[in-house]
From TrEMBL:
PANTHER family: ALPHA AMYLASE DOMAIN-CONTAINING PROTEIN (PTHR45825:SF11), GRANULE-BOUND STARCH SYNTHASE 1, CHLOROPLASTIC/AMYLOPLASTIC (PTHR45825). It comes from Mycoplana dimorpha. Residues 285-438 form the Glycosyl transferase family domain. The gene is glgA. SUPFAM superfamilies: UDP-Glycosyltransferase/glycogen phosphorylase (SSF53756). GO terms for cellular component: cytosol. This is Glycogen synthase. The lineage of its organism: Bacteria, Pseudomonadati, Pseudomonadota, Alphaproteobacteria, Hyphomicrobiales.
Length: 479
């Protein structure tokens, strides 16, 4: 089975969050299920600099009149198609924002072009490969099934995966005439969304199937609280909505072989974690006492509950804990965390930015990872935590609720607990979970069981890849 995956990022070439990890890991996991997946990704400077010996396989014009080249290349075990379109992607900033952190004003054009290229590949523009099915990811690729629907390719199966419904690709109606679509596409049954154009809404309307990245999130987005204004459409498509929890690349994230950590270890052999703990404390300037080290690896935003962490930071220190934070985001939240670090030198350390090797050391050295998200479609950091014996403390929402078994009395007695869940998602709720974690940490046998049970969890892509393969099969049967 040949499947085209269309995405705005893919690990290890370009990454701003979990989307890249998923798009990079899924093709490798699917290979064992008889699926050959090729990933179409934009030719950002970071991508073009890393790929070696790309081969031009097609040339096409975007609907905006710019020439685009499709390059085929193998990289890190992935079969990639790179859209080389300098007019859209040769920028000095990131994939979505400029060097000042502002969205590129032509993002609608940049990702419409990506989607158009995806549709043309589905049409058969490549001389030696045509996909049986197209899999689009998030709003940046959501126009792929739209272009397929309105350019005579509605017979080709398609699905869209929503990694985060909060990001919808909403633009003013003035862009619609430039998209190269018939007037009928700007309607309630197409792209029109309260007078604007919504790329994600278009994808949700036109794709054959809709998936999201955890079963709980699939139910949550059917409600006004989590549906972000699209719950009506999502409920209308409930029969074609499936939640499949993400996995992680267990070769990249393996404490037994990880090159980014100070000492390797595995389940049942956790003493070596102490060397990673010492290395982490040194990196963040934390004191080397016996108090638990809590870590945060996240975008620093309200959605991720970072304001709650800033609110309880003084309390964590007063209780004898320490805090290590890695991330970037809202300047106000960055400032609040840096101020806390200034108040509590040797107890709180903050690194603004993103550092992939450091994130590995944090999972290997911290005692627990905090994930207090107000909503979280799946989340990957808690899966890394489970894999590394870094006990997750998570909000009871989305994929966090699906992947962490709360250390309540029954679960502790049955020895199946892997972390701590809390609700409501508030500073008091987080404090309550932290109290339980402090209590467990003071009992080494209890804490060790939490770590070992978490490390036994199946966080790989194996089961989820099988579910995707079965879903692809069912779509082809309908074709």
């Amino acid at each position: 089975m040949n499947v085209l995956s269309v995405s705005s990022e893919v690990f290890p070439l370009v990454k701003t969050g979990g989307l890249a990890d998923v798009v990079g890991a899924l093709p490798l996991a699917l290979a064992g299920n008889g699926v050959r997946m090729r990933v179409l990704v934009p030719g950002y400077p970071a991508v073009m600099e890393q790929i070696a010996k790309p081969r031009k396989v097609a040339t096409l014009l975007s609907v905006f009149g710019d020439e685009m080249r499709l390059l085929a290349v193998q990289h890190a075990g992935l079969d990639l198609l790179v859209l080389d379109a300098p007019a859209y992607y040769n920028r000095n900033g990131g994939p979505y924002v400029d060097s000042t952190g502002k969205d590129y004003p032509d993002n609608w054009k940049r990702f419409a072009a990506l989607s158009q290229a995806g549709a043309e590949i589905a049409r058969g523009i490549l001389p030696d490969w045509t996909p049986d099915l197209v899999h689009a990811h998030d709003w940046q690729a959501a126009m792929t099934p739209v272009y397929m629907r309105y350019t005579g390719l509605e017979h080709v199966p398609s699905l869209i995966t929503v990694h985060n419904l909060a990001f919808q690709g909403q633009f003013g109606p003035d862009i619609f005439p430039q998209l190269g679509l018939p007037a009928s596409a700007f309607s309630f049954d197409g792209l029109e969304y309260y007078g604007d154009v919504s790329f994600l809404k278009g994808g949700l309307r036109t794709a054959w199937e809709v998936t999201t990245v955890s079963p709980t999130y699939a139910q949550e987005i059917r409600t006004p609280e989590f549906g972000m204004g699209l719950e009506g459409l999502i409920n209308a498509r409930a029969g074609e909505l499936i939640g499949i929890v993400n996995g992680i690349d267990t070769a990249v994230w393996d404490p037994r072989t990880d090159r980014h950590i100070a000492a390797n270890y595995g389940p049942g052999a956790l003493r070596a974690r102490s060397k990673n703990r010492a290395a982490l404390a040194e990196r963040f300037g934390l004191g080397e006492d016996d108090g638990p080290i809590f870590c945060v690896v996240s975008r620093l935003t309200w959605q991720k509950g970072i304001d709650l962490i800033a609110e309880v930071a003084d309390w964590i220190v007063a209780e004898g804990g320490k805090l290590a934070v890695l991330g970037a985001g809202d300047q106000g939240l960055e400032g609040a965390l840096l101020a806390a670090a200034s108040r509590h030198r040797s107890r709180i350390g903050v690194v603004i930015g993103y550092d992939e090797p450091l994130s590995h050391l944090m999972q290997a050295g911290a005692d627990a990872i905090l994930v207090p998200s107000r909503f979280e479609p799946c989340g990957l950091t808690q899966l890394y935590g489970l894999r590394y014996g870094c006990v997750p403390i998570v909000a009871r929402t989305g994929g966090l609720a699906d992947t962490v078994i709360d250390a309540n009395e029954a679960a502790l007695h049955a020895r199946v607990a892997t972390g701590f869940q809390f609700a409501p998602v508030s500073a008091d709720g987080l404090r309550q979970a932290l109290r339980r974690a402090f209590t467990a940490f003071r009992e080494p046998k209890v804490w060790g069981r939490l770590q070992n049970q978490g490390m036994k969890s199946d966080v790989s892509w194996e089961r989820s890849a099988e579910r995707y393969a079965r879903l692809y099969d069912s779509l082809l049967e309908r074709a």
